[in-house]
Specification:
Pfam families: Zincin_1. The protein has 142 residues and is of the alpha+beta class. It has five helices and three strands. It has a single domain, classed as 2-Layer Sandwich (Zincin-like), CATH 3.30.2010. Strands 1-3-2 form a three-stranded mixed sheet. 15% of the residues are buried.
């Protein structure tokens, strides 16, 4: 009995000469997605800030979401579409959330995106602790 190709354990490539493999290696830059690169940039900025301010960064949870919620919080007079912070309360730690799609839309290239991520993180941490952003990162806004 002949078995259907999709039920076979070893797939062949479309010419029938060999097994299917990825078109590019997993270590090559093309393999990484835009969202994965964005997450790596956010993690790098958090590590950098943690090296300078471990007492401020350690108790804060950081998250990345694709888009901001459609209903802004009622206490926000002017909602920020790039990021948001939530103060700690009732057993939940303070949180900073970055929204990937609006930031990627604003950025022209990778360097610009890194600067936007840095400014958003520093701005939200400064708002969270009631400090000026220049105190947290002297290069903020440059």
């Amino acid at each position: 009995m002949i078995e259907a190709p999709w039920n076979a354990h070893v797939y062949r490539n479309r010419h029938g000469r060999g097994t299917r493999t990825p078109m590019f290696g997993t270590r090559l830059p093309r393999y990484r997605t835009r969202s994965g690169m964005f997450d790596d940039m956010v993690a790098a900025q958090i590590r950098r800030l943690n090296g300078a301010w471990p007492q401020l960064i350690k108790p804060v949870q950081f998250a990345v979401e694709d888009v901001p919620p459609s209903q802004p919080a009622p206490w926000e007079p002017e909602p920020n579409l790039n990021s948001q912070y939530f103060p700690a309360g009732h057993g939940t730690p303070a949180r900073v959330v970055l929204y990937r799609m609006p930031i990627q839309t604003m950025a022209r290239d990778r360097m610009d995106m890194q600067l936007i991520i840095r400014d958003e993180l520093v701005g939200r941490i400064a708002d969270l602790y009631g400090r000026r952003p220049e105190e947290i990162d002297p290069d903020w806004g440059l």
